[in-house]
Structures are given as C-alpha cells and as structure tokens.
Amino acid sequence: MGGVMLNRRRAIAVALTLWLVNQVIGFGLRGYPLSATAFTWGALMGIGTLLAVAFAAIRPGFSQSSWAGHWLWVAIALIGGFGLFQGLIMLAYPMMADGHFMDWAIVVKIFATQARWAGAIALCHGALLGRQVTACHPVPDQATP
Predict the structure, then answer these.
(1) What is the tens place of the pLDDT at every residue in 70-105?
(2) How many CA atoms lie within 13 A of 49 on its CB side?
(3) Cβ contacts of residue 74 below 8 Å, gap of 6+?
(4) CB–CB of 23/39 below 8 Å?
(5) Helix-strand-coil percent breakdown of the chain, rounded to 5?
(6) Full-model pTM
(7) Contacts for 42 with CB less than 8 Å, ≥ 6 apart
(8) Per residue in 26-38, pLDDT tens?
(9) How far is CA 87 from CA 77, 94, 104, 124, in A?
C-alpha cells in the first residue's frame, strides 16, 4: 500500500524500515536461529518486499485521473504485489523448506489477511484524500446566488 500511496523513494524507505524492524524483532526478540537458512529467508522477504513496492509504485495514469482508477490500481497493486512476494517465497520454498509446511490453503489465508489490512489502509487513505480534496475545493453554498 505504501507503493500506491507514497512517492517511490519514501515507499521504499518505509518498506525497508519495516523489513529491518521485522528482522530485529525476529532475530533479537523472538530468537530466530542465526543460520544461513534464516538469513536467506530474511533476504528473500526483503527482496520480495522491494519487488512488491516497486510494482505498486508504478501508478499508471489511469490510477491518478479518477477515484475509480485509484481503487482499481489499489486492487491491481495488492494482487500483483502479493503475487510477486509470495511467488518468490513459493519458488524458494522447495529448496529451503527446512521441515516447515506450506500449501495453497496457507497462501490463501495469508492473502485474505493481507487483503483485509490493505482494504483498511486504503479506506483510511481514501477518507483522508477525500477530506483534503474537500478542504481544497469546497462545495459552493447553494443558497447564495
């Protein structure tokens, strides 16, 4: 969602910051093993995050010309970004399963969670944008000629 709502540089900075915080929490607080496999998974998730943000930050012209275009791009960015991120994970998974299990049912559950979060963030962002547009372009009073 950062790629849709922020400029590219800021979206990448936010995504990398969130990824770094996630790594610090995982390795520092949750005790993830300090192994090549764990570091590789972390790097893959960072790369996947950057791919998703870069895709969402494309923001084609139709997404900037109307609310319908904006919401269409939000949906496309969500699906495309998720596909890029999860596709990278699914490609690496057979080589790095390390005793964990993943199937399409898990991927669908992850997508449903991500879609709910994306929807909530997009609705809040849309409300803020609508409020800003109204403040910049107030509706004229109908009673005044």
Answers:
(1) 888 888 888 898 888 888 887 777 676 665 666 677
(2) 19
(3) 1, 4, 118, 122
(4) no
(5) 80, 0, 20
(6) 0.69
(7) 23, 26, 27
(8) 888 888 888 888 8
(9) 15, 12, 11, 28
